């Protein structure tokens, strides 16, 4: 029997309460040397739901696991049909005020980098340059047999050709780009193989139940070591892939600040949790620091060619 990955966490009653005053975040950023760790919550204002917040996708959707994806062709057919449709929606998502504020903090030299648990490319689209994609990116595809990597937009074109007329209406879209479709809607969707070796293709993302590549983890640990403070944005920190960096920072005596509406698994290590929407909180902080936050059009032009998830 396969062990299922941890998908949920129940807050205990002894967590410190959140605050609606973002001043602790402004103070940390004003001092500089801040490393950002972002999660799905920063992208909700761009129309991409998170996993665990109010109305989060876990209430209706179980994410694909690596074990299920590799176990059989039918599971891969369901995944690729849903992901192919979800990719179109992901491609239309645009950075919101939270992403643009992070990019503005970087431009003003207040950040040492950004570690994101998201796979949507929105930090880069907003203009952030120094981004580590902890869980990979949906705009790349990898072959599980030969390791060849290719652009998702190329695969999208091949799947369009293999599945003419495939255009069901999804019940919802999830943070991993997986659309909610019934088995009848999936139908006999055709999955295309690797063009190099004919092997199985997978998005170049870390599925639930799959380990983050160790070199990537070590790189992120180095970023935590170099930072003066850690700022968590929009993550419940339920899974260890992000929580370990919070624990590392706290153990080293570095301030940890969290901006998240709901309690997080890392609150016990945090100096403060700001319980405000990300866009409003970070825009307020930018204003207190005298930092202008670029509008979407300007930020998007600046980020052209920086790995944005394209439309198909």
What would a concise description of this structure say?
The chain is of the alpha/beta class. It is about 35% helix and about 15% strand.
Question: What does this protein structure show overall?
Answer:
The structure is a single chain. By secondary structure, this protein is an alpha/beta fold. The chain contains eleven helices and nine strands. It has helices spanning 23-31, 66-71, 73-92, 97-107, 122-126, 152-162, 183-186, 214-226, 240-251, 278-288, 296-302; strands spanning 34-38, 111-116, 131-133, 136-143, 149-151, 201-205, 229-233, 256-259, 272-274. Strand 7 (229-233), helix 9 and strand 8 form a beta-alpha-beta unit.
Labels describing this entry:
single chain; 312 residues; alpha/beta; six-stranded parallel beta sheet; three-stranded antiparallel beta sheet; 13% strand; elongated; disordered N terminus
């Amino acid at each position: 029997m396969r062990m299922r990955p941890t998908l949920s966490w129940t807050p205990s009653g002894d967590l410190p309460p959140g605050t609606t005053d973002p001043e602790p975040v402004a103070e940390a950023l004003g001092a500089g040397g801040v490393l950002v760790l972002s999660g799905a919550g920063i992208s909700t204002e761009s129309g991409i739901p998170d996993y665990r917040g109010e109305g989060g996708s876990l209430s209706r959707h179980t994410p694909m696991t690596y074990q299920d994806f590799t176990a059989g062709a039918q599971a891969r057919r369901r995944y690729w049909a849903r992901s192919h449709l979800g990719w179109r929606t992901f491609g239309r998502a645009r950075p919101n005020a939270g992403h643009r504020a992070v990019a503005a903090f970087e431009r003003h030299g207040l950040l040492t980098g950004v570690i994101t648990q998201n796979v949507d490319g929105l930090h880069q689209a907003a203009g952030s340059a120094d981004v580590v994609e902890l869980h990979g990116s949906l705009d790349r595809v990898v072959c599980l047999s030969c390791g060849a990597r290719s652009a998702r937009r190329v695969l999208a074109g091949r799947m369009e050709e293999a599945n003419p007329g495939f255009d069901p209406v999804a019940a919802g879209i999830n943070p991993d780009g997986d659309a909610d479709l019934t088995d009848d809607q999936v139908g006999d969707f055709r999955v295309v193989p690797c063009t190099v070796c004919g092997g199985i293709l997978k998005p170049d993302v870390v599925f639930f139940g799959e380990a983050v590549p160790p070199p990537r983890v070590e790189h992120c640990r180095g970023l935590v070591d170099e930072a003066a403070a850690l700022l968590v944005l929009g993550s419940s920190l339920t899974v260890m892939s992000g929580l370990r960096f919070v624990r590392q920072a706290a153990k080293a005596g570095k301030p940890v600040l969290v901006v998240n509406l709901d309690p997080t698994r890392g609150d016990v290590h945090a100096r403060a949790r700001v319980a405000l929407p990300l866009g409003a909180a970070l825009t307020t902080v930018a204003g207190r620091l005298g930092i202008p936050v670029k509008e979407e059009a300007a930020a998007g032009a600046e980020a052209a060619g920086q790995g944005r998830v394209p439309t198909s």
